[in-house]
Write a structure and sequence with these properties.
The structure holds two protein chains of two kinds. Helices cover 53% and strands 8% of the residues of chain A. By secondary structure, chain A is α/β, with parallel strands linked by helices. Chain A has one domain (2-308): 3-Layer(aba) Sandwich (Rossmann fold), CATH 3.40.50. Chain B is 69% helix and 0% strand. Chain B is mainly α. Classes of the chains: A alpha/beta, B mainly alpha. The interface between A and B is medium-sized, with 16 and 18 residues.
């Protein structure tokens, strides 16, 4: 038995070393979450305005058009849970922070990203890059290894792309904003509206309403504790997406947010159905593109400056 | 816990270490370890359903003893009936309840009666079709006097829940596996090496053949309207390989992991895609299930006697294959798939001469022999693919739609996509072909090859498995 174990170990050793090297490389290479954390932490003492939330604000708010020193910390599928964790962790360390821009969109109250980890693996990324221990189980290898999380194929592929100079591996700019410089045709937008609306409806879970309302309430409370004003916003959606929204769910979003805003005396700007945004402003039916982000952020800046003055 | 995950690797290493380094020479402890590990393995998926494994095992342990004890045939029958009711009851409730109720409602609807369609939605416990069949065979064999009842509860529970084959077989016979739990086990390096090679081959088939093709099959099945008939034909072809890679890959890993613990499981696949006719195919495909149905359904239908009436034999074949179709899943598509395979047997049963030249072609190859072999394999493939359309379809309506799209003029055009997968399949088949003619039980039996070739092969396979293991799809047969 000893000889077979030694042979097996000899066989496995180069593979283990290779995987170890790949793991080291993944930790060293740029990564969206790693970069967000580094950029955020580099300016912790200076940030006056922080953008949180999911892809809707990730694409819609370009900090360049905000007069206050701002950073976009939003990211794809970043639901209330993750934002609350980030605020709890960093608010204390941001003495200059005055505002957070917080998006509430149609799927917000009916979704929770950690329930769909097969899709986004968010909990593990938060564990790796922000040190969150919430929601992962200790025995899951994804907790400890980026290669296990990314898989070997994706780890090798992204390393190759990086070293060939084809990819920076980071999709946003120095302000944390992800921009999209292209727009869809009307036909594509209509099709996309149906697809994304159907997708959001499919994953919408009304039983999460109370869980998410409580989380938003906690986000508002923790902000108030540090004298930070949360500006709640609903970003514009294309008509094709609006058509797919179920009225009861949309009404729930508007009424709940509106009532939370009134109770806490904070602003809520609902631009979901705003007629000012046209085809060229959208990246797809539920996300703004570069031009839309300029318009939207400029408007937002006006609102914030009004509060400031 | 999937075989191709880190979790299983860690679990298995721990079991292996305890088994050989701590408990070697202590048979009871080794069996107890297997039992504990098996229950942990099953409970990892859903611990609540572990109770079903325990109920099924305890029922047959007890009824087995009672069948043996009973002196008159009536009592023996009654105890066997209890085993059948419990096992088939569990299977029927968890697997077929919804199917029968839905079918009933549909039938009434066809006659104009509206019935409420609120049926219980029941989760299918993984592996239930496998372990209930395994325990059933135990009781039936005792009833038939072919096996003695076990008095060793731990060994029996370990036999039913033996983790390498608990979820998707091979469906072991008590006469093969039970005695192995009673005999002392010594580590056999040759067996272990072969086990490791078989695991490597199984992982290769699962990850590189089944999962990579599964991605393409998923695209085609989810949107058949967007593809030409030629691509749809490729979709069924790929599904055939996906199914084979997935299921036989699982069996290889199961057999390999069991071998490392000193157990010999039965062979489940014998190069089925080189079968010359449909009878030959069923002797090579899912052998443990086919022989189970032969011994416990087909032979029961004939009362255990040799039947000379051809039509009765045909009837029994069709019934057996239709039930085997239903075993695969609670859906009419599986029933039709099984029924078709039953029908495919008819020509060979009516005209046995058709099988006279079904034999393996061995070198020196003649032109006539080779062409005949290719033609026979081609026909077997065509029949198999036709039935597989039902097997892979979510419902019968979809299957007919798939056929209508596939058998259109676009069937004869060049497939617009996925052609690049074909050379890989040809290489895979060539590897199988060569090792089949070398009479190897699996293509990775390369013990006599030069060391540098073997190690290159092992590294090539291991790295390819690691690289392509990104889909991590559950094994298809888990759902059966």
């Amino acid at each position: 038995m000893r000889s077979i174990i030694i042979r097996f170990a000899l066989f496995a050793l180069p593979i283990i070393l290779l995987l170890g090297g790949l793991e080291y490389l993944q930790r060293e290479l740029p990564h969206d979450y790693k970069q967000k954390r580094e950029l955020l932490e580099a300016g912790l003492g200076d940030w006056e305005c922080l953008v949180l939330g999911s892809s809707h604000s990730y694409l819609a708010v370009n900090p360049e058009y905000l007069d206050l020193k701002s950073f976009n910390l939003a990211y794809t599928a970043q639901t209330f849970t993750f934002d609350y964790f980030l605020l709890e962790k960093y608010l204390e360390q941001m003495p200059s922070l005055k505002y957070i821009i917080y998006p509430i969109s149609y799927p917000s109250y009916g979704s929770e990203a950690y329930l769909f980890d097969g899709i986004y693996n968010k909990t593990y990324y938060f564990k790796h890059f922000f040190g969150s221990n919430a929601f992962t189980k200790w025995y899951e290898p994804e907790n400890y290894s980026l290669v296990s999380l990314l898989t070997v194929k994706r780890s090798v592929d992204r390393s190759m792309r990086y070293f060939k100079g084809q990819d920076t591996l980071v999709e946003f700019n120095k302000d944390g904003w992800y921009f999209w410089d292209d727009s869809m045709t009307t036909a594509q937008l209509i099709n996309n509206g149906i697809q994304s609306g159907t997708y959001h409806n499919q994953f919408y879970d009304e039983s999460l309403h109370s869980h998410n309302v409580a989380l938003l309430d906690s986000i508002i409370s923790v902000c108030k504790k540090f004298d930070v004003i949360p500006v709640l916003v609903s970003t514009p959606m294309h008509k094709s997406y609006q058509k797919e929204m179920k009225k009861s769910r949309y009404d729930f979003m508007v009424n709940t947010t509106d009532s939370l805003a009134r109770v806490n005396d904070i602003p809520y700007l609902n631009l979901t159905e705003s007629p000012d945004y046209e085809r060229a402003d959208f990246m797809d039916a539920n996300h703004l593109g570069k031009e839309g982000a300029r318009k939207f952020t400029s408007y937002l800046n006006g609102v914030i400056m009004n509060i400031e003055n | 816990m999937l075989y191709n995950t880190f979790e299983f690797g860690a679990f298995y290493l721990l079991v292996f270490a305890l088994y050989w380094f701590v408990f070697q020479g202590r048979l009871k402890w080794q069996n107890l370890l297997i039992l504990g590990a098996s229950y942990f393995f099953y409970g990892w998926w859903d611990w609540r359903f572990l109770s079903l494994v325990v109920i099924s095992s305890l029922t047959d342990f007890y009824t087995g003893i009672q069948i043996q004890k009973a002196e008159d045939k009536g009592k023996k029958k009654a105890w066997l009936a209890i085993s059948l009711v419990v096992n088939i009851g569990l299977l029927g409730f968890f697997k077929y309840y919804g199917f029968f109720v839905d079918s009933f409602i549909e039938m009434f609807r066809a006659f104009g009666y509206e019935m409420s369609d609120r049926t219980l939605r029941i989760i299918l416990p993984v592996g239930i079709s496998f372990y209930t069949f395994q325990t059933l065979s135990y009781s039936i064999d005792i009833y038939r006097g072919r096996l003695k009842a076990s008095n060793d509860l731990v060994s029996f529970l370990a036999f039913v829940s033996f983790f390498p084959q608990l979820i998707a077989g091979p469906i072991e016979r008590a006469s093969n596996l039970m005695p192995q739990f009673h005999k002392g086990r010594k580590f056999d390096p040759q067996k272990a090496k072969d086990g490791l090679r078989q695991i490597l081959w199984g992982l290769f088939k699962k990850v590189l053949v089944a999962d990579t093709l599964g991605e393409v099959v998923g695209w085609i099945i989810s949107d058949p309207e967007s593809y030409s008939g030629a691509v749809l034909l490729m979709g069924v072809l790929f599904f055939a390989f996906q199914l084979y890679g997935d299921f036989s890959g699982y069996s290889d890993i199961a057999i390999g992991t069991a071998r490392l613990l000193g157990f010999n499981l039965m062979r489940n696949f014998n190069y089925p895609y080189f079968a010359r006719d449909i009878l030959d195919f069923w002797r090579r495909w899912h052998i443990s299930l086919t022989t189970w149905f032969r011994d416990y359904v087909f032979l029961s239908l004939s009362g255990g006697k040799m039947i000379t009436n051809k039509w009765k034999v045909i009837r029994n074949y069709i019934i057996t294959f239709t039930i085997s179709g239903l075993w695969h899943g609670a859906n009419w598509t599986f029933v039709i798939w099984g029924f078709l395979h039953g029908l495919y047997h008819i020509p060979y049963l009516l005209f046995p001469k058709l099988r006279s030249n079904v034999q393996q072609t061995r070198p020196p190859f003649t032109v006539k022999g080779t062409l005949t072999a290719i033609l026979q394999m081609g026909i077997t493939w065509a029949l198999n693919l036709f039935a597989l359309v039902f097997f892979m379809s979510p419902n019968v309506k979809y299957a007919f739609f798939y056929f209508s799209k596939m058998f259109s003029s676009s069937l004869f055009q060049m497939p617009e996509r996925f052609l690049r997968k074909l050379p890989w399949l040809i290489i895979f088949m060539a590897m199988e072909w060569v090792q089949m003619y070398n009479k190897k039980k699996h293509p990775m039996q390369v013990g006599k090859w030069p060391v540098w070739v073997r190690w290159t092969l092992y590294y090539g396979f291991a790295l390819a498995i690691l690289y392509f293991n990104y889909e991590r799809r559950a094994f298809i047969y888990f759902q059966f």
